[in-house]
Automatic annotation (TrEMBL):
Annotated binding of ATP, by residue: 221-227
GMPS ATP-PPase domain segment(s): 194-384
Species of origin: Rhodonellum psychrophilum GCM71 = DSM 17998
Active site: 79 (nucleophile), 167, 169
Record has Nucleotide-binding as a keyword: yes
Gene3D superfamilies, sorted: 3.30.300.10, 3.40.50.880, HUPs
Known EC number: 6.3.5.2
Keyword set, alphabetical order: ATP-binding, Glutamine amidotransferase, GMP biosynthesis, Ligase, Nucleotide-binding, Purine biosynthesis
NCBIfam families, alphabetized: guaA_Cterm, guaA_Nterm, PRK00074.1
Protein name: GMP synthase [glutamine-hydrolyzing]
């Protein structure tokens, strides 16, 4: 892989944003936990120390061996990272009188320093801290201040080590991108040549070297991630790739046929397997969300294993795993709390004697889409809303039956088609319908009804990590409600989900 910036994570909610901003500068970067620092190879051009929910004054606060890094390559400490630098070398960090959260303005900037080049007086910055650097160690110079924070930025004399109290990665810091560019390009000397094309060439070469003449079997879902991953593997090894598209009985209306058809035009070798009943049997009677997810994950693996055995010489299982899936499973204190078990993360069971190949496990969703477009994958696939592997099973609250799936497929179809017909589909990052396990009373044609409730959900997001509900036009929502209640038997009430993530999640289970 090309030159890169290493981001050491102390657990800040903004660490992923730092990575995104650096990549937007066409510079590759990776996030690693502060206590699992990788080998510092010559490809690493600089280090960013992230913020943290911890205080440097806490007993057992996250710490690392800065002596082994300082002076060897450029370092930028952000918030906690800067406080750690100050404290460890003899400075003083104290609780600030007021917890500084929100907008502030740089009242003093020393633009002689590379980090501060082209930053303007009064520039808005985003603060989020409870501690403040009262005294800097000897040899540390203040290079920017706000009216209430004297040490808003510092540099260590004679080396490219910097600290900033504010968060350049947050868009509320109006010149944050300029500051990060100063660090990554001026100070670290990165060439800004990391593009989709570079990624594609390097990945194909890497896949060729790794897989050689072995055979690969891969689960293909019609979604963006697996389609892009399969195309990359196909470019690398051609006919030695076999894709398997599983009809788990939890797909959307007509999806199995439509997706198989769209892959025909892409030259991929795709086998469709109809194993609906196997999934329904495994799900029978299960109501608890995690039990449902685990059962689905298990059957998926069984099916892939069966299919792999049908192809002589298969050594690899291809997966469409992307970077957020990986980050979520390696937090700084070991694996983070399991919020939802994604069925494709966590390794394969022992009985599967296959190695895993995941060409997209360093990319964010929007980057995957960019790569897909560069590979000229049809927009009908690249522009698709994400759809979870466990499918409608996590949108049917309670137990799963074929009849409930049928009902939800009809509702989902009306909603998604409605979004397309009204030019709203591309305004929305992901949308779907949820079948609730409750009945409510209605009246239809003078008759009392006692039928099911569905919820509609449409969110905006960049990478699914955070999301906001979309303000769909009332007229549109009204129309959808009418159509659903009139056309789908057994549904007499429609509600719209107005929760953002966090504190809710996109899927209900
Ligand atoms: N119906 C399916 N048949 C075969 N493999 C599947 C199926 N559903 C999911 N998978 C596998 O599980 C992986 C994870 O699914 P996930 O939904 O996260 O990604 P995706 O479907 O490729 O993309 P998207 O997030 O855009 O839907 C996929 O990359 C694919 O390898
Ligand atoms: O392939 C998948 N397997 C899963 O188990 C899974 N769970 C959630 N999702 C998708 O991930 C994104 C974030 O979802 P949540 O906010 O519900 O966690 C949303 O895009 C969800 O649709 C999944 N995708
Ligand atoms: N955002 C941060 O890194 C905050 C650092 C530390 N927890 C503080 O409150 O000052
Ligand atoms: Mg999917």
């Amino acid at each position: 892989m090309a030159e890169q910036i290493l981001i050491l994570d102390f657990g800040s909610q903004y660490t992923q944003l730092i990575a995104r901003r650096v990549r937007e500068l066409n510079v590759y970067c990776e996030i690693h936990p502060f206590n699992k620092i990788p080998e510092i190879t010559s490809e690493i051009k600089g280090i960013i120390l992230s913020g943290s929910p911890c205080s440097v004054r806490d007993e057992g606060a996250p710490d690392l061996d800065l002596d082994s890094l300082r002076g060897k390559l450029p370092i930028l400490g952000v918030c906690y990272g800067s406080q750690l630098l100050a404290l460890k070398y003899g400075g003083e960090v104290l609780p600030s009188e007021i917890r500084e959260y929100g907008r502030a303005n740089l009242s003093h900037i020393d633009t002689h320093y590379d980090l501060m080049k082209e930053m303007t007086h009064g520039s808005q910055v985003w603060m989020s801290h409870g501690d403040t650097i009262k005294e800097l160690p000897k040899g540390f110079e203040v290079i920017a201040s706000t009216s209430s924070v004297r040490v808003a930025a510092f540099k260590i004399e004679g080396e490219d080590t910097y600290g900033i109290q504010f968060h350049p990665e947050v868009t509320h810091t109006s010149e944050g991108k300029n500051l990060l560019r100063n660090f990554v390009v001026q100070i670290c000397g990165c060439a800004q040549d990391w593009t989709s094309d570079v990624f594609i060439d390097a990945t194909i070469a890497d896949l060729k070297a790794k897989i050689g003449t072995d055979k690969v079997v891969m689960g293909l879902s019609g979604g963006v991630d697996s389609s892009v991953a399969a195309t990359l593997i196909h470019r690398a090894i051609g006919e030695n790739l076999t894709c398997v598209f599983v009809d788990n009985g939890l797909l959307r209306k007509n999806e199995f046929e439509e997706v198989l058809d769209s892959y025909k035009h892409m030259g991929l070798n795709v086998i469709g397997v109809d194993v609906k009943q196997q999934f329904y049997d495994a799900l029978e009677g299960l109501t608890e969300p995690e039990s449902k997810r685990k059962a689905i994950g298990r059957v998926f693996i069984e099916i892939f294993d069966e299919e792999a055995h049908k192809i002589p010489g298969v050594k690899w299982l291809g997966q469409g795993t992307i970077y957020p899936d990986v980050i979520e499973s390696v937090s700084i204190n070991g694996p983070s709390a399991t919020i939802k078990s994604h069925h494709n993360v966590g390794g394969l069971p022992d009985f599967m004697k296959l190695s895993v190949v995941e060409p997209l496990n360093t990319l964010f969703k929007d980057e995957v889409r960019e790569v897909g477009r560069a590979l000229e994958i049809p927009e009908t696939i690249i522009g698709r809303h994400p759809f979870p592997g466990p499918g409608l099973a996590i949108r049917i609250l309670g137990d799963i039956t074929a009849e409930k799936v049928k009902t939800l497929q009809e509702v989902d179809h009306i909603f998604i088609q409605g979004l397309k017909d009204h030019g709203l589909y591309d305004e929305v990052w992901q949308a779907g319908a949820i079948l609730l396990p409750i009945h409510s009373v209605g009246v239809m044609g003078d008759e009392r009804t006692y039928e099911k409730v569905v919820a509609l959900r449409a969110v905006g997001s960049v990478d699914g990590m955070t999301a906001d509900w979309i303000h769909l036009p009332y007229e549109f929502l009204g129309k959808m409600s009418n159509e659903i209640i009139n056309r789908v038997k057994g549904v007499n009430r429609v509600v719209y989900d107005i929760s953002s993530k966090p504190p809710a999640t996109i899927e209900w289970e």
